[in-house]
Every structure is written in C-alpha cells, then in structure tokens.
C-alpha cells in the first residue's frame, strides 16, 4: 500500500488539495504520494521560519546540540527503515542506501558537536580606551534545496549545520525523492526541534517554489545541490536581495592512471568511483585517462572486473549491486553518449545499452578509443559509462584534465611522490582523490568545487561558516 505524505509547516503536518506520485525507477510502480505545495504553502513556510528564528538563534548552543543528538539517535534507530524507503523511491541498492543513511546521521552527530564550538574573538585595539569584540551569529532563514541522488545525505549535510548555527530552515527536496525527506523531518520533530525551525515543502513544481525560496527577502541564505544550469539561476535570483549562496553543482571528474600505478588498485578505484549509485554522483569519474603504456592491460582488467562485480536489479533484492537510473531522461542521455562515441570511432568494451524492458536500467559500460571531439569528453553523463582516453606525458594529461568548465573532483593513481604532489596541486579541482576513489566519505572534510562546480564548502567545521555572520563591536570606555 502507498501512503500520502503531508507538508510540515510551523510544527504542523498539513494536507494539500493535490498530490503527486512517487515512483520506483526500477519498476515504474507508485510507491507513495507526496503533498503538492503551492505558492501559499511556500510563503507560509518562509514566514514560519522567519518568526521562529529569533527564539532559535537565542537558544543556548548546548540545547541545540542536545536536540541534534536526539535526531541523530532516532535516525540511527530507524536506519534500516529509512534505507528501504530510500531505495524504493531512488533505486540504489539497499547496502548503498544503508551506507548513505549512516553517513547522513553522521552529519547530524558532527554538527551536534560543532554547535558548541562557535567562538568569537577579543582583539586588542590600537587605542587603550577601546576594545574590539568579534561575534559569530546565525545568518537567518535558510532555504535548503536538495537533489534526488542522495535523498538523505544531502539533507542532513545542509540542515544540520544550519540548525547548529542557530538558523531556521525551509527544506525543499527533489520531486523524485520526497518520502525520505518526510521521514527525516518526522524524526526531527520527535527529537524536539521546535515548531517553525524546520519546515518541509514538497512539490511537483520546483521552478515556481524554488524561485520563491531564492528571491524572498525573508530568506537570508540559499544552499543548493544540483545542476550547474539551475545553480546559475539560483545565483541570479539570490543576487537581487544579496543572499548568501552555497552551490554544489555539476562535475566532470578526470581519473588519471600513470604507468607506475598499481593497475589492480586503479581498476578497483575506477569501479568504486564510476559505478557507485549507477554513476549518479556529482564526484564520480567521467573521463578516464590511462597512460598509453598500460592502457591495453588496464582496459582488459577493468572489463573483467566489471563482469564480475555487477548484477543489475531492484535495489531491495539481496544480490543486486547496481540499480536503475532515476528516469527516462537519464537513460536517454547515457544512450546518446555511447551512440555518439561509437559513431565517432570509440569501441564498446562491455555494456553499452539499456538492460531489460522494465525500469531505467543501463548496463555498466566501458568505452575505449575515446577522443576529445566526442560529447562524452565534455558533457557529464551521470550514468554508468566510463570512457577511456590515453595520454603520454604528465603535462599533457594535466592540461586535458583541467580543460573543463567544471572543477569538483579529480582522481590520480601514481606511486611517484613528486608526481603525486605536482598533480594534486596542479589539478583545478576542489577535491582530489590521490590513490583514493572515495575521498568525500568523511563528514569532517570540506566538500565543494571550483569554477562552475559551485561556491562554498560543506562538511567539517568549514560547513558551519556559511551559516554564520561575523559582527564586530567596538567598545569605548
């Protein structure tokens, strides 16, 4: 049986006149119905957050911390239920979903601790009869707009530091995956977070509601994860009222393998980076650069490992190791990229096409003989397709890797210490995985990109700063 969720505004669960379907991308079946918010609901949510802000900002940090700890414990207690719900609406294998929920809870735990560590300063003044005091205070109302590929992790990575800092929040999750958000907010309510501090808006009309959340002058900060195209619109909207903006946008990650690298480890790294979540992560590998001396051996080893590792199926089935893409548009893009590459001379080593007739499954794919004029060389696939390029020199591959508007994540495999330093420092990316295919797992690290991959950082103590204003007070006596 499917259930119908409600909006959460000012501490009350509110039904709407209309709802929209939430479907399982593995089967196309309806798994739930979500309340479909309109402009008046969004306005009410913003107003609730606006009115709740003074009291929440004045709540002692240790009390905010205690409530966040309760939220963390409730998420951990319900992690299996949340993971199953997440898999049903998003499609990723259950083990991946469980890992995401634990990671999501980790953000709440981390920021429960960081809430108590917002410190100011006293700075000596040049004048003996004056003192300088520096305070850090919460920004105000925050709009948090989250994506479908990590329906739990992207919520807590934004909402937890906002609450810890003393901000109030209006949360709008992706229309594909609203049910996980509903469950997390239910648990936040159970944790005792006061009315108006968290407000949840689900909608099938993200453009209208998103515009309100990014233009309303009562909102003082917007935090968004999604495409670069939408991120640019949000930045324009926010500029009208000079809001703070955190943007975690698209990526086009290079994965560079030098001829001194351990091929087995590099193949393991590629599989973990490229095919996790069916290639639907912003930091997953998009371009594989392999030194020409080892390219043939690397491609052979990678194709053999792909054949062993992956079984496509419904994420709730125990043997499944790769789920579906999120929708038909994602499936069409993966197909287009493969067909374009083959038409221009690439070879499909394995995979290369849709899997089955039901759901949006695409085979884990490896392409060789890929060149720069192919679409996959410049466009983010966001699917399980790994294109292999070859290179000869360090200088050449660094230039090619940096030749992108994106700068989120990059990967380098080498056993040469000097080269590892030169590449790590030379790559124009906010995150570098040096012999590490999963550099963004830790909640304590600063996550974010350069160039058109975004603004700001999330995670660790860095993740608190975007939600805090700095005020300086000059006192004469």
The biggest beta sheet reads: 7 strands, mixed
**Counting H and I runs of at least 4 residues, what is the number of helices?**
13
User: Can you identify the CATH superfamily of the largest domain?
Assistant: Aldehyde Dehydrogenase, Chain A, domain 1
Helix content: 25-40%
CATH class of the largest domain: Alpha Beta
Q: Secondary-structure blueprint of this entry?
A:
Blueprint (H helix, E strand, L loop, with lengths): L2 E2 L2 E3 L2 E3 L4 E5 L6 E6 L3 H20 L2 H17 L1 H12 L3 H21 L6 E4 L5 E9 L2 E5 L7 H13 L2 E5 L5 H13 L7 E3 L5 H10 L3 E7 L2 H12 L4 E5 L4 E5 L5 H12 L10 E7 L3 H15 L18 H16 L3 E4 L14 E4 L16 E7 L2 H9 L3 E2 L1 E5 L3 H10 L4 E4 L15 E2 L2 E2 L12 E9 L1
Parallel strand pairs: 1-5, 8-9, 8-11, 9-10, 11-12, 13-14, 13-19, 14-17, 16-17, 19-20
Antiparallel strand pairs: 2-3, 4-5, 6-7, 7-23, 12-22, 15-16, 18-21
């Amino acid at each position: 049986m499917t259930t119908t969720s409600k909006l959460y505004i000012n501490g009350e669960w509110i039904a709407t006149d209309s709802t929209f379907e939430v479907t399982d991308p593995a089967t196309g079946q309806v798994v739930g119905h979500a309340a479909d918010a309109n402009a008046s609901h969004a306005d009410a949510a913003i107003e609730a957050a606006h009115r709740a802000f003074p009291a929440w900002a004045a709540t002692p940090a240790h009390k905010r911390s205690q409530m966040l700890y309760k939220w963390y414990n409730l998420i951990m207690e319900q992690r299996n239920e949340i993971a199953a719900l997440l898999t049903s609406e998003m499609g990723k294998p259950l083990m991946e979903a469980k890992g995401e929920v634990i990671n999501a809870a980790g953000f709440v735990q981390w920021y429960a601790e960081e809430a108590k560590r917002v410190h100011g300063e006293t700075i000596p003044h040049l004048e003996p009869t004056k003192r300088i005091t520096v305070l850090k205070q919460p920004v105000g109302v925050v709009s948090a707009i989250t994506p479908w590929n990590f329906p739990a992790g992207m919520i807590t990575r934004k909402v937890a530091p906002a609450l810890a800092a003393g901000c109030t929040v209006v949360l709008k999750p992706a229309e594909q995956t609203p049910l996980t958000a509903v469950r997390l907010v239910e648990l936040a309510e159970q944790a005792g977070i006061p009315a108006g501090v968290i407000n949840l808006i689900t909608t099938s009309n993200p453009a209208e509601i998103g515009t309100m959340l990014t233009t309303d002058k009562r909102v003082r900060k917007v935090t968004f994860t999604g495409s670069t195209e939408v991120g640019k619109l949000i930045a324009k909207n926010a500029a009208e009222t000079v809001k703070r903006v955190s943007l975690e946008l698209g990526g086009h990650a290079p994965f560079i393998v030098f001829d001194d690298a351990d091929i087995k480890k590099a193949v393991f790294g590629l599989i973990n980076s490229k095919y996790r979540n069916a290639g639907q992560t912003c930091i997953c590998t998009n371009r594989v650069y392999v030194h020409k001396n080892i390219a043939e051996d690397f491609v052979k080893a990678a194709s053999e490992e792909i054949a062993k590792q992956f079984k496509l199926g419904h994420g709730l089935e125990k043997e499944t190791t790769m789920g579906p893409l999120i929708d038909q548009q994602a499936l069409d893009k993966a197909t287009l990229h493969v067909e374009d590459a083959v038409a221009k001379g690439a070879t499909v080593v394995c995979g290369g096409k849709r899997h089955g007739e039901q759901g949006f499954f695409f085979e884990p794919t490896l392409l060789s003989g890929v060149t720069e004029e192919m679409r996959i060389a410049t466009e983010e696939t966001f699917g399980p397709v790994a294109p292999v390029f070859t290179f000869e020199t360090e200088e050449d591959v660094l230039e090619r890797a940096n030749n992108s508007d994106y700068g989120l994540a990059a990967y380098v495999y080498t056993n040469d210490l000097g080269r590892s330093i030169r590449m790590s420092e030379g790559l124009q990316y906010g995150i570098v995985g040096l012999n590490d295919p999963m550099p963004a797992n830790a909640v304590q690290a600063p996550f974010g990109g350069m160039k058109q991959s975004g603004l700001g950082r999330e995670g660790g103590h860095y993740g608190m700063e975007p939600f805090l204003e700095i005020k300086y007070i000059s006192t004469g006596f």
